[in-house]
Design a protein that fits this description.
Helices cover about 80% and strands about 5% of the residues. Helix 1 crosses helix 3 and helix 9 packs parallel to helix 10. By secondary structure, it is an all-alpha fold. It has a seven-stranded parallel beta sheet.
């Protein structure tokens, strides 16, 4: 706020303009309240303050709402608007005396401009103001043009209030305003109450609504739109799907058109509501599916981690067993070395120990027995190793099978989720297509019904008005005969004026009906002309093909004549061929005459078809009521489809619950398998400890242990 106030005062100093006290006071109030709304309503702003405010708005980035209602911003000139803006833009680039001359020219000409155009020119490229109120400023032709340029340039304005102005007085300027509205992509609320908009302006506004796709609320109360303007707006709303609220009170529009407009806006609001619901549902479903995918990924990763851990533990257990086996082999090697040393000692002491041969023999027998036992122990150890390896391979196979089964279940779950997603998408597409068909059929039926009802009501009104007028004239004549002559003359004059007005109305209605009949005749004649042109083109193409055939036949005739001159023997055969070709030519000519007769018959058939099409149109009007019943059936089908959607969602939830139960069961199985693996590891450790203790006990209990102990 302080930056805007400082820029306003600085620009007033640069332009030599005294700052307006009311504007400064309002800026101070907004600064004290820390609000983003600038309220200058009810203040009479001069042209100098308007120019300064326009230049300040070009640099503003604070205020989002600007209220300039009832500020007496009048229009006085419009030819030098673009020149003024260009001079303001290039004023900072000039230097020296040339800049001084330009500033003096601007100050002289600013007194001849209007304040509205200056402020709006300042808002062309503003990026902060979202709500603009120009109520009660008597904006007319040039104001409408500048507003159209503003809507075409500005990309941030969302709300525009133009109540109590006169934008619809000049049709050309209002058409420029409508062009700017058509090219705008940000405006959502437009207030055009009490702007003297007639049916021409309503038609221009309808063209703009056909091109615009962002406007949601439009207020056209208390204008002069009339029947034609209401119809044009109704046709525009059939193509525009963004307008949700349309106020049309006080415009001399029939009640049926007002109801049709309300129905169209209601359809647009229902369409937006359904679109929002579908988007929310799809968003929720996508979130649920993504959460399920994340959970499945986490479970898969946890399973892989557990499998890796089990593999690591198996590797550690195999390493520990191999280390123990190595230690045992080292002990056996030490024992073998001790036995070898003993045999050497025995050989050294054979001469001295001749008496102990028997002991030596017994020692040899013991050694042979030990060797046999060692071989048996080796075989047992090899068998135990093979069994352990087979058991480990079986365990690994089981684990791999379980992992494959889990992967298959995960794939099946993913396929089911994808099938459910495809079903949801297909059902949403079917619902959308049914809704589009309903909207299109209802729009066509409403158009046809409105046209037929307008015609019937116009004819009924004419007949009723003529009967009522005749009866009122008779009663008045009976009453006026009894009264004085002067009163009778006055009453007759009033009646004459009324009759003339009625006659003018009837003539206008007759002219409209004649114009409609002429347009229908012109359309029928155009269709007949198109059919005739098509038939003529087909005739021309057929004639051209026949001419090409004739040319080819002539060329063949010439070749035959040359060949006849060269070969005199085949003259008789060539003459027969030429006679046959002449007969074909006669047949072709007859065929051409028959085709011409067929064309005349087809033209008569086209006339009969046009009459038949008119009869069919009358029959289609009768079938519209049957179509209404069909629409009600479609609505019932839509409700049934929605129920099926609810049932499918419930089934989907039940399937998800079943999947969660399956996941819990799989986790319990994994836990049990981990417990079994731990138990098997403990059993293997116990077996290894038992083997080690048995080997140690056997070695200690053997006679080698007794002999080796004293030597040590």
């Amino acid at each position: 706020m302080e930056d805007f106030r400082w820029t306003y005062l600085q620009l007033c100093k640069e332009g030599g303009v005294e700052p307006q006290e009311s504007v400064v006071a309002q800026l101070q109030e907004s600064r004290a309240a820390h609000s983003s709304r600038l309220d200058l309503s009810g203040h009479s702003l001069s042209t100098d303050t308007c120019s300064v405010l326009a230049r300040a708005f070009q640099k503003d980035a604070v205020f989002t709402e600007v209220s300039l209602s009832d500020c007496m911003l009048t229009e006085e000139g419009g030819s030098l608007l673009i020149l003024d803006v260009s001079l303001v833009q290039h004023h900072n680039q000039l230097s020296g005396s040339l800049a001084g001359l330009c500033t003096t020219l601007i100050c002289v000409k600013m007194s001849e401009r209007e304040g509205t155009k200056m402020i709006l020119a300042g808002l062309f490229h503003n990026t902060s103001v979202k709500c603009l109120d120009l109520k009660g400023n008597n904006l007319r032709s040039t104001g409408a043009e500048v507003l159209g340029k503003l809507l075409g340039c500005n990309k941030t304005l969302h709300r525009l209030v133009l109540e109590w102005n006169a934008l619809g007085v000049w049709e050309e300027s209002f058409s420029l305003f409508c062009d700017g509205l058509a090219s705008n992509n940000t405006l959502t609320h437009l207030d055009l109450r009490n702007n003297q908009v007639n049916h021409h302006g309503a038609s221009e506004l309808a063209l703009a609504l056909r091109r615009n796709s962002t406007l949601q609320e439009l207020d056209l109360r208390w204008n002069n739109i009339g029947l034609l303007g209401g119809r044009s707006l109704l046709e525009a709303l059939q193509k525009n799907k963004s307008v949700v609220q349309l106020e049309m009170a006080g415009n001399n529009i029939p009640s049926d058109i007002l109801k049709a407009l309300e129905q169209s806006t209601g359809h647009n609001s229902e369409r937006e509501f359904t679109l929002r619901e579908s988007r929310n549902k799809t968003h929720v479903l996508s979130r649920e599916i993504q959460s399920l995918k994340e959970e499945k990924g986490r479970q898969f990763l946890s399973l892989m981690e557990t499998i890796d851990r089990q593999r690591d533990e198996m590797g550690r257990s195999t390493k520990s067993t191999s280390a123990q086996i190595g230690q045992l082999q080292q002990a056996l090697n030490e024992r073998k070395s001790a036995i070898n040393s003993l045999t050497a000692k025995l050989q050294m002491t054979e001469a001295a120990l001749a008496l102990s041969e028997q002991k030596g023999q017994s020692m040899g027998e013991v050694l042979s027995h030990m060797k046999a036992e060692k071989e048996e122990q080796k075989e047992l150890q090899s068998r135990l190793r093979k069994k352990q390896e087979e058991e480990s391979s079986l365990r690994e196979g089981k684990l791999h099978r379980e992992i494959q089964n889990l992967m298959e279940t995960n794939g099946q779950l993913r396929n089911k989720v994808e099938e459910l997603e495809c079903r949801c998408k297909s059902q949403q597409q079917q619902i959308f297509e049914l809704k589009q068909e309903l909207t299109n059929s209802t729009a066509e039926l409403k158009m046809r019904l409105t046209k037929a009802e307008d015609r019937l009501e116009s004819e009924k009104r004419r007949s009723k008005q003529t009967l009522e007028d005749m009866e009122s004239l008779r009663h008045k004549e009976v009453e006026n005969v009894s009264r004085h002559l002067e009163e009778s003359e006055r009453a007759l004059q009033e009646r004459i004026f009324k009759l003339e007005a009625q006659r003018i109305q009837l003539e206008e209605e007759l002219g409209k009906t004649k114009a409609a009949v002429v347009t229908e005749r012109a359309q029928a004649e155009e269709e007949l002309g198109k059919v005739r042109t098509q038939m003529r083109l087909e005739e021309q193409e057929h004639v051209s093909s026949l001419e090409e055939k004739l040319r080819s036949l002539r060329a063949s005739m010439q070749q035959l004549q040359l060949h006849c001159s060269q070969q005199k023997q085949s003259i008789s055969e060539l003459q027969a061929k030429s006679s046959h070709q002449s007969v074909e030519m006669d047949g072709l000519r007859r065929r051409i005459e028959e085709l011409q007769q067929d064309l005349s018959g087809k033209e008569q058939e086209k006339v009969a078809e046009v009459s038949r099409v008119r009869v069919e149109l009358l029959e289609q009007i009768g079938q519209l009521e049957a179509d209404r019943t069909a629409q009600e059936g479609l609505k019932a089908k839509i409700s049934a489809v929605e129920r099926e959607m609810k049932v499918l969602t419930n089934n989907h939830r039940e399937v998800l619950l079943d999947k969660e139960s399956e996941k819990s069961s799989l986790l319990e199985k994994l836990r049990l398998k981990e417990v079994e693996i731990q138990r098997m590891k403990e059993d293997e450790a116990q077996r290894a400890s038992y083997l080690q203790s048995a080997i140690l006990s056997y070695v200690q209990g053997s006679p080698l242990g007794h002999y080796s102990s004293p030597n040590k």
